[in-house]
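Continuing the batch. This is chain 6 of the set; chains 1 through 5 are on the previous pages. Same settings as before, nothing changed between runs. Recording input and output for traceability.
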Amino acid sequence: FTLVDRTGRTVTDAELAGKFLVVNFAFTSCSLKCRVVNDRMADIQRLVAREPDVLLLSLSVDPNTDTPPALAKFADSFGADTNRWLFLTGDKIEMYRLIETSFISRSPELAGLVPGGFAHTDKIMLVDPRGRVWASFNGLKTNVAQSVVEEIHSRRQAK
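Output for chain 6:
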């Protein structure tokens, strides 16, 4: 894939290869649920601050609205490090294909509630350095940050 981060920089899948990726799904117009999940992502960012093989990705499910400037403002509200926590947007078809084929499903019943009709935007996904989705976590749980970091450490030791 080729996407754009909040600074307007192009990001490709090749750039992310070999890293643990902590992935969530966001849209800047979300009021409560995705704010909670992004608070959990901020906790993860703090816990992995000294682990250069871990990146956080927030994929926009509303790329028509989530322009780089909108994502920058949203990311800043969580103290997101521009080098460690990437907020990504891009072409709607490409974004939806990536999200749906790699992470979470779409549901026509949700189309009016969540951009793209994506189910489970409250999930935090862990992708291993080989690009495989390894685990899925409930991003609304208060202890999820510790669980994600423990899973990363477990996967790293298993390599």
